[in-house]
Amino acid sequence: MQKIKSMNKATISADIVSSTELTQGALSQLQSEMKAFVKQIGIEYKGSWGRLSKGDSVEIYIDNPQDSLRIALLLKTLVKKFKIDTECVGNDTDKKRLDMFKTYGIRIAIGVGEMRIANKRTNMLDGEAIYASGRAIERQRTSNKSKIVIKNTLFFDSSDSKLTQQINAYLGFLDVLFKRATERQCEVVYYRLSGKSENEISEQLGIKQSVVNQHSTTFGWNAVEQLLKYYEQMEF
Fold first, then answer.
1. Which pLDDT belongs to residue 132?
2. pLDDT band for position 2 (50/70/90)?
3. What does pTM read for this prediction?
4. Closest to 211 in 3D by CA, of 199, 193, 223
5. Cα gap 119→107, rounded to integer Å
6. Integer angstrom CA distances of residue 34 from 1, 57, 87, 113, 180
7. What are the sequence ranges of the domains in the chain?
8. CATH fold for the domain made of 8-181
9. Which among 24, 45, 50, 123 is least buried, having the fewest CB atoms inside 10 angstroms?
């Protein structure tokens, strides 16, 4: 098995909010987009790879921990920009759960620590980082609960309690931005996170550059960008 050097790596564990309320067609389309996303991460971030499991969950191994927040936010915006019609749902309870999906999209936990095994060929992950991110997501599970209460959707865990507390405070701020964000705003931010300029996004989406700028500003992109720069310079 492939052994990892004794240095910290990062993992992401995530699960879609209210996935059971999506139609089979919608869920299949979202799964397809997430598979394509995971594949692209493996191309753009050297040594990183991921896998989908249980239909509504994803795990990603990240060789460079400094990349983990950007990848997490890319995944968040990918799901939040996914278009789904809640008006055709007749049952009020089902509609409320679908509204939860539109509001929160996906829960994501970043774990940082040593990894004993990260073998893409055998699809095996074992080590401190994946245990940390997995536990953080497991604590948020709402399956089979009649009443769902979601306070946060972005989490960080590591063996360094001070670092964990600090980063979770930043993620709490990002959660506020994402909760109020529209599909279009998340679409614009997804491409900003991917490194595209406003002019490139304007051409991609077929909208004016000024509209792209408005969506970025309303979302709070400048603050996100500054936080990313800080995170990507941290020592893990």
1. 97
2. very low
3. 0.92
4. 199
5. 25
6. 27, 10, 24, 25, 22
7. 8-181
8. Alpha-Beta Plaits (3.30.70)
9. 24
